[in-house]
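Structure representation:
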Amino acid sequence: MRLKTSHWHKSVTDQDHSNIVKVSAMTTKTEKTIYKISTLEKGLNILEILAENGSLSVTELAKLSGQNRSASHRFLAALKDLGYLHQGADSKYSLSLKLFEIANKIDDIDTVRSLARSFMRELSNLYGETVNLGRLDGSDIIVVDAVLGTEVIKFDSHIGDRSPAHTLAMGKAILASRSDEEQQEYLNKCVFKALTSHTITDKQSLQSELVKIKNQGYSIDDEEWALGLRCIAIPIFNAPLPSYAISVSGPTSRMNPEKIEKLRSDLMMAGRAISDQLRQG
């Protein structure tokens, strides 16, 4: 049997040429990206796309990023685990406020903070207590602005402070105004950590509290976050369902029922005014 050497030689030559082309292309690509980390670039690109487009599904993100659905899902899951994203009840992904903690600027925070600031100062001057602006981020509330009161208080708020939503008047005010589906999702995922002996520590109690808050339009934190501290809060409707809330807090010795009642009226009036301005754009 005669070996077809010419055919064999041609096949080897073609294969060698193909390998050379591939190696050459790989070398060129490596030289161009020697100072870049492609995985990091893709992750940052996803954050930028979400910042520009808001909540997106895996499919929507894949289309905008130019990656396949499987790769997009892996990146989204990793970014969620790292705390940069959170996943809503509709399974869509959106930015968390972890970037705000790093860069102190994200989403519509500047707009809400700018509109709320004058009302916060007025409330603080009128009652002498600390006024906070908070935003729901996943299962937590992050303080995005604070006006310290003229009266002495043991617990001062700091921008960037993060606490479980169910322990704060601001958190409960926001949750009470969210949809039934979002409330149920929070209740199912909530880790009912007790910060004081007054903290709500079970699903049924929090659910009942949210119904009460929704009916009355305001929320009270009665030493649930810190002993000796009492707060009243109202939601800020920056959208059909709120993400923000304003609270006035002070020691229980000053935040008595009479003061709370006076505060309630002025605070709710301020909340309506801020919400109306946000809706008007």
In short: Residues 1-12 have pLDDT under 50 and may be disordered.
